[in-house]
């Protein structure tokens, strides 16, 4: 039997090379290293033990032993990197919430409150009646309202997989840009047999070919409304005919205060239009009643806008052609900016009307009104629930816009880019 070895008596010796050790000797060496060296955990260095980030800030040699326990915990928490990161994140979130409330939510809530107050019947009594509640004066030679023939209306329901049987194509302010108008008609694949064009006013003036735009509209038997620029040119034309200044004459012979101070280009356009073109433009109403369209209710076309809550026959023609803003107390419209946009008040009025009809009538949408308009090039294309603004500043290098309504009331918008003719004015 092989002699046994007392392993506890072995000492660590230097061996030249483990490869030359017998197996039993190597085993003994490994054992000796594990037995007499320090445990591996003693060689682990934890950074937190010596890092100043985790040292108490009390300043006492014993790490703040004299400080209250709660203060030590507070100081340790504040000096922790994670606490500082979370604090920064929460401060950013708080600042974002305050900014959102101050800049977005609070102004909208305040505006909504003012709109509801403006439409309150008690406000009407306090103001002594809203603008337009009394019958407005009629303008001689101006067609106030006209109704579109129902044969032009799209079908109430669309047939899946089939092309629309009828389309209404509403076109924003053209301002004499005939080339862009023809391009837009190509873009929408205009078909005279099934499509009907409706212009939202300001077909003429400013651009290079106003008579050409009128001829194109007449060629396709389009419908239109009277815009503020048609109104100016037509009034000028009729005054010229009355004062025998219609034939080409030297502007030097015309008093400077005659014809509302209109410039020479407008006077030239008034002379340039033919009698047939003037007659066609004169027939354009201030308000066009398109009729009932699914999901849109009663659709009206005007150039400027409408005062909500006032019957169509009592709307002021001049305001309908020129309005941009509206006074919330008296509902007096204005052609200047800086006040409440008439579209906001109109949309609020219609939304309240729709809410009042829900559950009362089978189709509450049929009781509301949607207005399609032009005139507001600064706001450009503006498609709200009950107002659709189509003037996108074509004559100044913007776009010419067409809004297409197909069977079932489906809507889509098509635009083409325009050259800038503003520098020629």
From TrEMBL:
Keywords: Membrane, Transmembrane, Transmembrane helix. Residues 167-376 form the Calcineurin-like phosphoesterase domain. InterPro entries: Ap4A_hydrolase, Calcineurin-like_PHP, Metallo-depent_PP-like. One of its GO terms (molecular function) is phosphatase activity. The chain crosses the membrane at residues 86-104. GO terms for cellular component: cytoplasm. One of its GO terms (biological process) is polyphosphate catabolic process. This is Ser/Thr protein phosphatase family. The lineage of its organism: Eukaryota, Fungi, Dikarya, Ascomycota, Pezizomycotina.
């Amino acid at each position: 039997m092989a002699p046994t070895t007392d392993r506890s008596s072995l000492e660590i010796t230097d061996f030249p090379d483990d490869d030359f050790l017998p197996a039993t000797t190597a085993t003994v060496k490994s054992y000796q290293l594990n037995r007499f060296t320090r445990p591996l955990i003693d060689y682990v260095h934890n950074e937190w033990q010596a890092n100043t980030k985790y040292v108490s800030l009390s300043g006492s040699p014993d790490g703040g032993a004299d400080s209250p326990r709660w203060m030590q915990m507070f100081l340790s928490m504040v000096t922790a990197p994670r606490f500082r990161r979370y604090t920064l994140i929460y401060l950013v979130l708080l600042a974002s919430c305050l900014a959102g409330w101050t800049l977005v939510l609070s102004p909208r809530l305040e505006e909504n409150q003012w709109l509801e107050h403006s439409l309150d019947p008690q406000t009407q009594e306090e103001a002594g009646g809203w603008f337009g509640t009394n019958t407005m004066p009629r303008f001689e030679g101006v067609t106030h309202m006209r109704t579109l023939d129902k044969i032009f209306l799209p079908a109430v329901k669309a047939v899946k997989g089939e092309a629309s049987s009828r389309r209404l194509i509403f076109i924003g302010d053209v301002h004499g840009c005939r080339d862009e108008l023809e391009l837009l008609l190509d873009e929408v694949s205009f078909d005279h047999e099934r499509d009907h064009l409706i212009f939202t006013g300001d077909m003429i003036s400013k651009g290079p070919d106003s008579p050409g735009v009128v001829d194109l509209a007449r060629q396709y038997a389009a419908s239109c409304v009277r815009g503020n620029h048609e109104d100016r040119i037509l009034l000028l034309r009729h005054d010229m005919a009355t004062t025998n200044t219609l034939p080409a004459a030297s502007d030097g012979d015309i008093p400077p205060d005659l014809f509302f101070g209109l410039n020479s280009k407008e006077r030239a356009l008034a002379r340039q239009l033919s009698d047939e073109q003037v007659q066609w433009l004169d027939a354009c109403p201030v308000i066009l009643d398109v009729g009932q369209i699914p999901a849109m209710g009663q659709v009206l076309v005007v150039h400027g806008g409408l005062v909500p809550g006032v019957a169509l026959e009592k709307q002021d023609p001049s305001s309908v052609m020129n309005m941009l803003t509206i006074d919330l107390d008296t509902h007096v419209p204005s052609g200047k900016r800086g006040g409440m946009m008439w579209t906001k008040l109109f949309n609020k009025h219609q939304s309240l009307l729709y809410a009042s009809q829900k559950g009362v009538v089978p189709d509450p949408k049929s009781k509301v009104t949607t207005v399609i308009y032009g005139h507001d090039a600064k706001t450009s294309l503006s498609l709200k629930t009950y107002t659709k603004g189509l003037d996108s500043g074509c004559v100044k290098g913007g776009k010419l816009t067409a809004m297409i309504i197909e069977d079932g009331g489906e809507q889509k918008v098509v635009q083409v880019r325009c050259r800038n003719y503003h520098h020629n004015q």
